[in-house]
Design goal:
With 192 residues, the protein is mostly helical. The chain is built from eight helices and no strands. Helix 5 packs parallel to helix 8, helix 6 packs antiparallel against helix 7 and helix 7 packs antiparallel against helix 8. The radius of gyration is 15 Å and the shape is globular. It starts with a helix and ends in a 6-residue tail after the last helix.
Length: 192
């Protein structure tokens, strides 16, 4: 029963992430942070598939996890593969919803934060920098949402410099909402 519940959480969280990215972020060239943000930068600059890029850039992090924290390696591998697949699978829905860019950034941040937060509550994630943030959180006691926010800020600042001032501003709004939503979902409760 626990395994089935975890599988449903990974699927549900991955769907939230994929919808948030494709419905709300990609139409306005908005970034998330971490590995997803790096993948989106590559998508905007060279039309590379974001899900495939997430897998590619997650490999070094998963190698580190294999040697240092195998439980998270196993728990996150499924989340990374499923969310990456769904991000590319749902790409045809890009542009399906038309709202103002600022609201799109907010909703995208909430959707991605819900997906990440749900997975983290069940000791799983999409891997990438979420995995790094979870490992750091376990060692330092700092809330995982705050650590994700810091990492995301670094990626978004770099992406904003490469893309545009609008991308930077909207992306800052997005990672704020990703961080807040993830923090609210993961605070003080660990479901196993």
């Amino acid at each position: 029963m626990r395994l089935m519940r975890k599988g449903l959480v990974i699927l549900g969280g991955s769907i939230f992430i994929a919808l948030g990215i494709n419905l709300f972020l990609i139409p306005y060239k908005v970034l998330d942070g971490g590995i997803i943000g790096i993948a989106l930068i590559l998508n905007y600059l060279w039309a590379l598939k974001p899900g495939l890029m997430i897998i590619f850039f997650s490999i070094p992090i998963f190698i580190i996890a294999w040697f240092n924290y195998r439980e998270y390696f196993y728990n996150s591998l499924h989340g990374m593969i499923i969310s990456s697949f769904l991000i590319d699978f749902f790409q045809p829905i890009v542009g399906f919803i038309h709202i103002e860019a600022i609201y799109s950034s907010i909703l995208g941040g909430i959707f991605v934060g819900l997906g990440i937060g749900l997975m983290l509550r069940f000791k799983t994630s999409t891997g990438g920098t979420d995995l790094v943030a979870q490992l750091l959180s376990d060692k330092t006691g700092v809330n995982v949402g705050i650590l994700i926010f810091i990492i995301d800020t670094i990626v978004v600042l770099c992406g904003g410099l490469l893309l545009s001032a609008d991308t930077l501003l909207l992306s800052i709004i997005t990672i704020f909402f990703v961080g807040i939503t993830t923090s609210l979902i993961t605070r003080n409760i660990q479901i196993v």
